[in-house]
Design goal:
693 residues; alpha/beta; Rossmann fold; Arc Repressor Mutant, subunit A; 4 domains; seven-stranded parallel beta sheet; six-stranded parallel beta sheet; 26 helices; 38% helix; globular
Length: 693
């Protein structure tokens, strides 16, 4: 659809939504032209389009047109977001349009709640965890639910939260089916839309969450100007020198992404002392108190000249104004994060400007690999199956939802259809009974046991040991940080930070005056009195196989080249398999040859002797090893917070599935041993030396 008549025809199909969502712009974006007609026809879609393409309106407007009127009451549309930080910004963005239509909007996240279950809004912005919570206590809210939008689906897919969301959607469908069967709703139909700026296989991703999705892919990324710049591991001299080039470039605002909170604080504190931005140096990450984060977002968005240091909390579509340059200190962990971070640049210009600061040769080559392959859509994330630990969490949550406070196996099995077998569910239920979390009720029925009742009682506390609504891995218990004079909560910190007498919060030093068991009381101190050494580097991001196996190309080597380099200390074998597969390879080799780990086991191992032939194992042999050593990999894989609650056999199986043994064997078989030129040899050893400091 491209000519004027087609645009006018689409406008005519949106008699209510056009004035509310599009009239002020006067036109549709290419994404909206492609997606809206399909949704108006009643189909499900997954929309893959560049940032700033109007994906939100492309999904929300036609669903509002089809399913909501000024007479609508009760919850009709669910807008599921991946992070709490996105909720407030999204609410401000779509509230004016819904106000024009006299439709109520609510939000429910851990940070902010305006949603009243007794008087529910027509549209609700929320997270999977909050959906889970609402299902347990107010399942009838979803009786007339008509549409579901899943924003940034790539951030869910292939994670424990994504597996949880799959089950939650089944639970929502069950509520709708029950309402239809008992004449509380005219039908059980739910329409779906998934949105993403980057997903490798849209149809396959969407199929895990809802049926019959029509993929809508819209091309057209802005060109990206990338600069690769060295940065000393012990100072910020190169970074502050970079700021001095802004005037000549006519740049005023920058966002700086770091990979940890400690890096954010350290770099912000150092830059603040000699910043060309004056006092407009901001810090943004999840441990900062929610209201303060919102203030930072607003201040940074309205300032004419400013810099903000952030973790992943600002990767998504929060309105932070026009950004002249995106600065990355250290490469992100995957291509999705890279696309999201780059996408925060100025969306109204022809070109995005990105500065990649690397502190080691390894960081430099990872940067170049991610940029070259992600922007060309070559790096994808694999889906390795449903994590059975989600079943534990969902059993606990479903029990709390059940009016009879009981569950039956056939009911639970239907929620996990296509994900787990009935036999596996029986194994989990039996194990939970042994642990005291479940106890038998009537024949074929289970109820909460004493341990589950204890866990449910804990949910009322600020920091329960485990949330029955969440599959996010548990973080250590945190303490509130309060200003000694105002008593205002500033942030939250982990207890292990308390060995320091001076902390950095928002890039400013504060003294720890005392700790009372519930809070850390602090006072600000002049920056010049902060003499403690700042930590500019945190642990390296886990190196995935998807990224590692593409690194040789950046060195000028053919794909799957596996260099063997002889030195007086032995033979260095560069396998490029990533951290998980590298650890597997090392432990499998230990039973055959003399081998040592290197500083970067995800890239290279050291052998005492040159291998005379390629190493190979059968799938049975590798699975046998993983069954024996599965605990080592539980810490390396994202298996969900409830993974320790599984019976041993399912814990082993989960590890084997997430490792993906066939892919490991294929990757190993594809490697081609070779010798290499002297100049490449030095580049290889630079990658290892970089992580020895």
């Amino acid at each position: 659809m491209s000519d004027l008549s087609d645009r006018l025809a689409l406008k005519a199909r949106l008699p209510r939504a056009w004035p509310a969502f599009f009239e002020r712009h006067g036109n549709f974006t290419p994404t909206q032209l492609a997606a809206i007609p399909v949704l108006l026809d009643g189909d499900n879609v997954i929309v893959c389009a560049p940032t700033a393409g109007g994906k939100t309106e492309a999904a929300l407007a036609p669903l509002v047109e089809r399913h909501c009127s000024h007479r609508s009451s009760g919850l009709r549309l669910l807008y599921i977001i991946p992070t709490r930080a996105l909720g407030n910004d999204l609410q401000m963005r779509i509230a004016p349009s819904l106000d024009v239509l006299h439709l109520s909007l609510g939000i429910k996240t851990r940070d902010l709640t305006t949603f009243d279950p007794q008087q529910p809004s027509v549209v609700l912005i929320t997270t999977p965890e909050s959906v889970d919570s609402l299902l347990t206590s107010h399942a009838r809210l979803f009786t007339n639910l008509r549409g579901i939008i899943i924003d940034e689906i790539h951030l869910f897919d292939g994670t424990p939260r994504g597996d949880q969301l799959r089950v939650l959607l089944n639970r929502l469908r069950e509520v709708r089916r029950h309402a239809s069967q008992h004449s509380h709703a005219p039908d059980e139909i739910i329409q779906y839309a998934a949105l993403s700026a980057t997903v490798t296989n849209p149809a396959a991703a969407a199929a895990r969450y809802f049926p019959d999705a029509k993929p809508i892919e819209v091309a057209g990324r802005q060109s990206v100007d990338v600069a690769y710049l060295p940065l000393s591991p012990d100072s910020v001299g190169e970074l502050t020198s970079y700021w001095q080039t802004f005037r000549a470039r006519d740049w005023r605002k920058a966002i700086v992404f770091c990979n940890s909170r400690s890096e954010v604080e350290s770099y912000a504190a150092a830059v603040r002392r000699r910043s060309p931005f004056g006092s407009a140096v901001y810090v943004h990450y999840s441990n900062i108190e929610a209201q303060r984060r919102h203030e930072i977002e607003e201040q940074f968005a309205t300032d004419e000249a400013a810099v903000c240091f952030a973790t992943s909390t600002l990767e998504l579509g929060i309105d932070i104004g026009s950004i002249d340059v995106v600065v990355l200190i250290g490469p992100p962990g995957d291509g999705n994060a890279l696309v999201q971070r780059i996408g925060r640049g100025n969306r109204r210009r022809q070109q995005l400007h990105v500065a990649c600061f690397y502190r080691t040769p390894l960081e430099e080559i990872i940067f170049k690999t991610l940029i070259a392959n992600t922007l060309g859509d070559c790096i994808g994330d694999s889906y390795n199956g449903f994590r059975p630990s989600i079943t534990v969490q969902q059993i606990f949550s479903y029990l709390k939802q059940s009016p009879a406070a009981a569950l039956r196996l056939n009911t639970i099995a239907s929620l996990f259809d296509g994900m787990l077998s009935s036999q596996e569910i029986e194994m989990i239920v039996g194990h939970l009974q042994q642990l005291g979390y479940l106890q038998p009720g009537r024949p074929g029925e289970w109820r909460a046991g004493p341990e589950l009742n204890r866990l449910i009682d804990e949910q009322a506390s600020d920091q329960p040991s485990l949330s029955i609504y969440s599959n996010i891995d548990v973080t250590p218990a945190q303490l509130e940080v309060r200003d000694r004079h105002t008593h205002r909560v500033i942030a939250q910190i982990n207890r292990q930070w308390l060995h320091q007498s001076t902390l950095s919060l928002e890039g400013r030093p504060v003294n720890v005056d005392w700790v009372d068991g519930e809070a850390v009381w602090v006072t600000s101190v002049p920056a010049e009195k902060d003499t403690e050494r700042l930590i500019y580097r945190s642990g390296r991001k886990s190196l995935s196989y998807e990224v590692a196996h593409m690194l040789p190309v950046e060195l000028g080597l053919p794909p799957d080249t596996s260099p063997l380099v002889e030195t007086p200390e032995g033979w260095w074998w560069f396998h490029w398999l990533g951290d998980v597969y590298g650890v597997m390879l090392f432990n499998l080799l230990r039973f055959r040859v003399s081998v040592e780990q290197t500083a970067v086991p995800g890239l290279c191992l050291r052998l005492a002797d040159k291998p005379l032939k390629s190493f190979s194992w059968t799938e049975t042999q590798v699975e046998g090893y993983l069954k024996e050593d599965f605990r080592r990999f539980e810490k390396m894989l994202a298996l969900g917070a409830f993974h320790p609650f599984l019976p041993r056999d399912l814990r082993r199986r989960a590890v084997i599935e997430q490792v993906n043994v066939p892919r490991f064997l294929d990757a190993l078989a594809a490697l081609c041993y070779t010798t290499i030129p002297e100049d490449v040899r030095e580049s290889l050893f630079d990658l290892l030396d970089a992580d020895r400091d």
